Amino acid sequence: MNAQKQVAIVTGGSRGIGKACVETLARSGFDVAFTYHSSSAKADELVASLTAETGQTLKAYQSDAGDAKACQALIDTVAADFGSVDVLVNNAGITRDTLMIRMKDEDWDAVIQTNLTGVFHTTRAAGKVMMKQRKGVIINISSVVGVYGNAGQVNYAAAKAGLIGLTKTVAKELGARGVTCNAIAPGFIETDMTGDLPHKDQLLNAIPLKRFGSPEDIANTVLFLATKGQYITGQVIGVDGGLVF
Ligand code: NAP
At what angle do helices 16-27 and 40-54 cross, to 10 degrees? Predict the structure, then answer.
């Protein structure tokens, strides 16, 4: 791959899946801008170690995915700092789990705002840059929960299902300008988000490949879409070990 001067943005790149995406893209020749919300020390450490290892340009930005103005400012700043926006990975996400009848309005709002509305704001801003460039790759990290639903996650499932509709629509609107848009639907991936999941043994029984996924499993799919996915758009790609709900 000739990825020289290709610029990728990863939201939520300080930990978990986003961090693996930052590492994989940088090691494959991308310059990478990534955001974090509160983990500034982890973000700084990642920039320092990957810059030394790969020689690529890396930069971390404190930016709240749930803040509309911050999403627009992020894309404007990265476009100015790096010169282009070739790949956008909408990865930042949160959970506020509880059964629907107990869910507080603020937990519904926080998850929809960060996991869905933030993707709209970031994608709208990046889409304008990509349309002008007549090329771009947008990858949204959805979830198997957005496809199947999951008890205790009505807010998260609604946001992740919403991302699928957003993805398919953006693919239709921007395709003629050379911009692809796909969603990845991870199964259970071992990160801080799933660290204290109950009944892990039972969950494993539902996964034909008999293991939880790694952040690298998702990052490798992101890399494939970013480098080899030129004729793939509007798709939801399950990366879930064959998980059947
Ligand atoms: P994680 O380990 O909890 O990491 C979340 C990342 O998102 C961190 O970098 C965090 O930054 C950032 N973030 C959180 N809120 C943010 C905000 N308001 N603005 C900007 N950044 C924010 O989560 P993960 O497991 O890697 O999940 C990453 C994505 O994959 C999420 O969208 C999640 O829904 C999705 N996903 C995960 C799984 C799984 O099994 N883990 C399965 C399906 C889908 P700080 O470090 O600063 O907090």
Answer: 20
